Amino acid sequence: MRGRCWPILFTGALLLAACKLSLTPENVLNTYKNIQDARKDLTPENEYYIGRSVATNVLARSDYRYLDQAAVRAGSLEGLTEYVNQVGQVIAAAAMETTREGDRPAPMAGWHFIVVEGDTINGVSAPGGYVFITRGSIEAARTEDELAALLAHEVAHVVRGHAIGSIKKSRWAGVTKEAIDSSVTLDEQALGSLTEVFDGAMDDMLDSLLVKGYSRDTEYEADAVGVQIMVRAGYDPRALIRYLEILDGVQDTGSGGFSATHPKARDRIKELAERLADQPAIAVPPARTERFTAAKANLPN
Question: Where are the domains of the chain?
């Protein structure tokens, strides 16, 4: 066992590498207590490390194909990625000013917006402030407000902790048993069992993000919170309806991607139309139109 460790997520304070000498039943029990209500109790440090793991898996699913790679790897932004981050940071700043109980509007390491290669209309967000949108999503948008609508929806998922909330409660049933049955230190078999539990938690989040999607109520909440954020940021919240109308024209719930992991666009449109019925019109500054046009001109062929 000397020198052998397993990555264990969801500790009471920070991510730790759990080794036989450090992971005691008391630590495991404390871990269990801290994740019983994961959406409430996880610290920003927890979500940062979880988000990095989820984000890496998201990129791996797309073979690490994303725009402006050289600049991103060098720690800088350029091209279309820079523009999307500029819009995204405005949305993120507005999210900090429209908080609700249980929100996590300020990720520990800030917000990160990445444009993934792909023709489908799709957006995915991971805990800790990681947001991915496809190139096809930008191509589908006709205005910056429509792009901001997609980003606001994904930011809302992070703010409300939807990915964390997707972890199956049954995952933790065996954690307390491990704590009760183990001696002062856990042996290799017990540690392996616990590692499977936490790996399963990661799988639950990825399943919700990329395969099954969130629940209908969760998606509606992300839309509702997203339009609140848009209004605060000065964007037209009805742009989300207009963007969903584009999606409705191409959506096939059996084709995978965004279509499979989100409710029907027409249902979301109806819900938003009722919510925004009394929303006053918001004028779009010409500069916003100009920079959006310039940014789309830089889309790769």
Answer: 6-35+167-210, 44-164+214-296
Residues constituting the chain: 301
Handedness of CA 46, 52, 55, 60 (dihedral sign): negative
Distance in angstroms (rounded) separating the CA atoms of residues 288 and 230:
14
54 phi, psi to nearest 5 deg: -65, -45
Task: Please state, rounded to an integer, the average pLDDT across all residues of the chain.
Answer: 78
State residue 134's pLDDT score.
94
Whole-prediction pTM value? Answer: 0.77
Nearest Cα to 155, choosing from 114, 105, 199? Answer: 105
The lowest-confidence range among 159-173, 186-200, 209-223, 234-248 is 186-200
Alpha helices for the chain (secondary structure H)? 25-35, 38-41, 44-61, 69-73, 79-95, 135-140, 144-159, 162-165, 173-181, 188-210, 216-233, 238-250, 257-261, 265-275, 286-296
pLDDT band at residue 300, thresholds of 50, 70 and 90?
Answer: confident
Residue-by-residue DSSP string for 26-67: HHHHHHHHHHTTHHHH--HHHHHHHHHHHHHHHHHHTTT-BT
Residue 123 in 3-state DSSP?
Answer: strand
User: Tens digits of per-residue pLDDT, 131-189?
Assistant: 999 999 999 999 999 999 999 999 999 999 888 776 655 555 554 444 434 443 555 66
CA distance 264 to 260: 9
Distance of CA 65 to the CA centre of its chain: 18
At 170, the amino acid letter reads S
Alpha carbons within 13 angstroms on the beta-carbon side of residue 218 total 19
Query: Residues 20-41: what's their mean pLDDT?
Result: 48
Q: What is the largest CA-CA distance in the chain?
A: 68
Ramachandran assignment for 257, one of left (phi > 0), alpha (psi -120 to 50 degrees), beta (any other): left
